[in-house]
Amino acid sequence: MKDNPFSLWVYLSQSPLLWLTVTLLVYAIADAVSLALRRHALANPVLHAVWIIGAFLFATGTPYAIYFGGAQFVHFLLGPATVALAVPLYENRKIVLASIVPMLAALVAGSVTAVFSIVLLAEAAGLPREVILSLAPKSVTAAVAMGISETLQADPSLTAVAVILTGIMGATVVTRLMNRTGITDFRARGFAAGIAAHGIGTARAFQVDEVAGVFSGIAMSLNALITSFLVPLALTVLMR
Amino acid sequence: MLASLSLILLCQLAGEVITRGLGLPLPGPVLGLLLLLILLLARDRFSSIARGPLRNSGVETASKGLLKHLSLLFVPAGIGVVEKLDLLATHGLAIILILAVSVMVTLLATVLTFRLISRLFSEAP
């Protein structure tokens, strides 16, 4: 090692250990800061972890593929976490069943708005076709949205970026927007967060209120179901 | 803990096998969620399956542990933004603006529909 001070870096930067550690460490710090700022919306830990790690990769000239070699262990857990949403759903089944009708109505209204608004706005902005296709599933949780994007032969990695941006924006504005509308029903507020901003919105909802978190989790899983069918339909109607 | 994690993975695996096997346009983990929910509900009906991770809130504790750090799991995909910097340089502003508008419209449409329908139903005679 003494002969070449870079050999240690070369070894570490290629191993999953370094990038897994960086991901967990930077997120842990961003999360601690967010907690210290009493979960202020602008202190969103995902937002700050993403730009800090992104800047670090850029500064060290590390390709994303090398980084992902380590970070994939965290990314993989998105699937099991989706399955785990069964537990809050089970534990709150009474309140969920009691509000099944408004939930289904809001699900249809919300997912249609999410898909149609983004496609119409993207067309109005004159974005290229491939970008529009990649943005269409942006309100759905990452693993599912990337799957939809793949079947449309769009760009799944652009979809992932749109999904994260959407989640961060949703989580940032949801509390203030809802307070302004004067709606205090945490079932409705959480449900909206889950439809519009998937898992990042759900994480935010759990920070604000347990019932909101549960409804957000339900909204996110139902939205994943319905959007898989809705996106191809919306694209044939809206794009020619 | 180990048994609980295995059960969660098993639900996901079954979900993937079924959706891919039948060609369902549905993500495997979403079906896995439904399977775990059915297992939890079945456990309350039939005490004979209340063993291992389905006993003493085993799978509940493991799931809550996973969900506690849900937003961490989005970080690796989010950093994919470094690969899209040139695209964002050309269309970034438009993309960010329309995503922001779409998110707010969706939040409002969802929350207002929920409240409207829930009020209609609770005030019905």
Automatic annotation (TrEMBL), chain A:
Tell me how this protein sits in the membrane. Answer: Multi-pass membrane protein
Query: GO CC annotations?
Result: membrane
TM annotation in the entry: 17-37, 49-67, 73-90, 97-122, 158-178, 190-208, 214-238
Q: What InterPro entries does the annotation carry?
A: CidB/LrgB
Entry keyword set: Membrane, Transmembrane, Transmembrane helix
Pfam families associated with the record: LrgB
Q: Report the principal subcellular site.
A: membrane
Keyword Transmembrane on this protein?
yes
Can you say where in the cell this protein is located?
Answer: Membrane
- Alphabetized PANTHER family for the sequence: PLASTIDAL GLYCOLATE_GLYCERATE TRANSLOCATOR 1, CHLOROPLASTIC (PTHR30249:SF0), PUTATIVE SEROTONIN TRANSPORTER (PTHR30249)
Q: What is this protein called?
A: LrgB family protein
Give the originating organism: Bradyrhizobium zhengyangense
From TrEMBL, chain B:
Q: Which residues form a coiled coil?
A: none
Q: Name one GO cellular component term.
A: plasma membrane
User: Which UniProt keywords are listed?
Assistant: Cell membrane, Membrane, Transmembrane, Transmembrane helix
Q: Which compartments is it annotated to reside in?
A: Cell membrane
Entry annotated with the keyword Transmembrane = yes
Q: Where mainly located?
A: membrane
Pfam families recorded = LrgA
The answer on whether this UniProt entry bears the keyword Disulfide bond reads: no
- Which segments cross the bilayer? 24-42, 65-82, 94-117
Protein name (database record): CidA/LrgA family protein
